[in-house]
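Notebook entry, structure prediction.
Reason for the run: the old model in the group folder had no record of what sequence produced it. Starting over properly, with the input documented here first.
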Amino acid sequence: MAASASNTLEQTQDEAPFLRQPPPTASELAKLNPPYGPLPPEDWPSVDHLVTEDDTPVDNIYAEKQQRLLNDSLYASWHGPGAGRPFIALANVGLFHGINLPAQVPDVLLSLDVEFPADIWQKRHRSYMIWEYGKPPEVVIEIVSNTVGGEADVKLRLYARMGVAYYVIYDPTKQLSDQVVRLYELRPTGCVAREDGWMPGVELSLRLWQGKFEDREDSWLRWYTRDGQILLTGTERAEQERQRAEHAQQQVERLVARLRELGIEPDA
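New structure, fully documented this time:
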């Protein structure tokens, strides 16, 4: 199944020269998903028949940790792609794109220029309903754990139809292909694979990182800024500040010791 999807993409690129044009600008991407805003309350459809949660999580341990790593680092170290631009990041939450269609449940989604409603306990606010937020998320990430999820074909087409600008397939155990990370960008002509991991308009990239998250040393998918800085988790930021404070204290202690060698007693 993965090989077929890959061959189809390669044939499309060979047969369509326009797919080799430079990547779109942020303004061009914005035209794909115009900010028309959410529906006014009087136009809200009934969602009583929708299943927004079924209380049957089946993620594996690695996937659960990977989801938290991605979302934790966004909230701890990122302020959005520009000043005053809010965002929301969700893991394993329903994404609804049609009032009579079942939800997709991406492992991670990132949506710009939106905020959570005041009451998230209302049924219409328990999931990400595109008509409620007025736009699809910019980024959807699927973590592959087997060969039956349809990540490389069915979901690729489905998220493109929703208007998701960037779709990421993270395949840590190479279930679908030899590519661990695949990033697809939605253009007016369709989805095109990006090799650099960079997402214009979102102003972030996704790369593999080898290191320890919580209690596990492994390869992880991480967010990076344009200048190559990794987005730190809250724990990593706290450890970084602890090390800085410890280094500053050591410098003070060395200075005090040097002054005393010179016969100078520093002020307390």
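Summary: The longest strand covers residues 204-213.
The old model has been moved to the deprecated folder.
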